Amino acid sequence: METKICLECGEPIKGRSDKKFCSDYCRNAYNNKVNKDAKNLIRNTNNHLRRNYKILTGLNTTGKTKIHGSKLIRQNFDFDLFTSIYTTKTGNVYFYVYDQGYLKLEKDYYLLIKKDIP
């Protein structure tokens, strides 16, 4: 019978024949290395979404607010990151970061709204 070697540390594995790692530590270390890029992308995207959400909630304290776009830009709001889009029957396009939305108006103004979630 051939001795299996741990995929992470190279040590011999004892136990079941289908084991790939000598310990939980090695299994976790290996999987963290393999999934590092995907986890970093998700973590960075979530951090940007969280920042956008914090900016919108800070500027929209009443549930419905009209502001100039420069206020969003000054706080480094990322217009490319949002969680959903809602288009009304009249063609208005609202971009949402979770329950906080914004609609581009004329002359670089934005309408900020909070969606009521039941």
Description:
The longest helix has 24 residues, at 36-59. The termini are far apart. With 118 residues, the protein is of the alpha+beta class. It is built from 3 helices and 5 strands, in the order H-H-E-H-E-E-E-E. It has 2 domains: 1-34, no CATH class; 38-114, no CATH class. Strand 2 (84-87) and strand 3 form a beta hairpin.
Report the sheet-strand fraction. Answer: 15-25%
What does the average pLDDT come to?
A: 93
Quaternary state, please?
Answer: single chain
Instruction: Please tally the helical runs, counting DSSP H or I stretches of 4 or more residues.
Output: 3
Helix content: 25-40%
**Low-confidence blocks of residues:** none
Largest sheet: 5 strands, antiparallel
From the alpha-carbon coordinates, what is the Rg to the nearest angstrom? 24 Å
Tell me the span between the first and last alpha carbons.
61 Å
Number of domains: 2
| Overall strand count | 5
Spatial ordering of strands, largest sheet: 1-5-4-3-2
Helix- and strand-based class?
A: alpha+beta
